[in-house]
Amino acid sequence: MVEDLRLDSLEGxxxxxxxxxxxAGVHNVMDLIVRGPVEISEITGMEKDTAEKIVNKARQHLxxxxxxxxxxxxxxxxxxxxxxxxxxxxxxxxxxxxxxxGIETQALTEVxxxxxxGKTQFAHTLSVMVQKPKAEGGLDGGVxxxxxENTFRPERIVSIAQAHEMDPEKVLDRxxxxxxxxxxxxxxxxxxxxxxxxxxxxxLIVADSAVGLFRAEYLGRGTLSVRQQKLNHxxxxxSRIAETYNCAAVxxxxxxxxxxxFFGDPTRPIGGNVVAHTSTYRIYFKKSGxxxxxxxxxxxxxxxxxxxFALGEAGVIDPEETEKxxxxxxxxxxxxxxxxxxxxxxxETPExxxxxETSExxxxxETPExxxxxETPExxxxxEPxxxxxxxxEPIEE
Length: 398
Ligand SMILES: Nc1ncnc2c1ncn2[C@@H]1O[C@H](COP(=O)(O)OP(=O)(O)OP(=O)(O)O)[C@@H](O)[C@H]1O
Ligand SMILES: [Mg+2]
Hints:
binds adenosine-5'-triphosphate; 44% helix; alpha/beta; nine-stranded mixed β-sheet; globular; 16% strand
């Protein structure tokens, strides 16, 4: 570990530069890497050459300390590095299967789907699960939750924590919520997040929704390229932070079944940053009656697969859990009903109880709509990835 991440630990960075940088919200060596030379020069007014030199020094410093990967690495080194990637369990068998163990650190996972499909519930569940000890599938880490739609609910965290036999108060304490009021604020929160991430051992960053404010503020075709440019900046920042600080990033993205807003403008933002080693996973959530379907859409190494999950008090849950629960509720209701009738008639009627119980339970367990709704061809065509993959290549000159 590099003990000293202070800016002035870099050779050639004196008090004046340090002040200039911290005035611009760059507080440590990690922040330099995350923001990159172009941005550093923009926000500090520093010459681009100087900014490049400083950022290169920062990179070298972190490589030497083993905190980030070298520029040139062998495949076996990458393989070794990937072994150290942490995974956060989703608390369900079905989604863990889909994610091959859980949500990865050093990666951005995009969850998209229509309203009510469970994106926010998923984010809440992960915010609890990441706090579990490593032996139980967590990373014993904290959460930075960027809430752009005012849908973060501590009550849900409490229920989910209780369902997983965790102390709700402790769990709440480790979730830092940042409410973003507009897209510029949302980006600013992330730009300034470095020290919070470090101080609180943040292992999960949630942006729920990552896209909503951008979409609301930049309406119409004329503004689409600006919107995409700003959104790309946010998303790249998020994935660079995930990589630099070894934490998982989860971004949600609401999509509508109608294609209107998504068809698009061919304009590509100019001058993208080169994001090294960044993996992006895209998961599509779909409603299917009471159940939900999750599909791994885009992954460098997962097969394209689908699983069925459900939503409940415990957040995202395995579909069997709802059935168990329904059974229990049905039983309870039946016993109650039977008790009432017993009181009324003052006669023992065990056979009635048995009959009512079976029929109610059967009815509750059947969920034929799930299979029928698994096919979802219409939405896919209309969905665009948040991040333009082109941006990972060389900047485009005009
Ligand atoms: N306590 C709970 N118990 C069971 N299910 C719940 C509970 N709270 C919420 N849900 C389920 O979660 C659904 C809402 O999911 P969620 O808020 O995650 O959707 P979303 O994908 O974030 O939607 P949006 O795009 O509007 O933000 C509700 O329709 C409900 O079915
Ligand atoms: Mg939501």
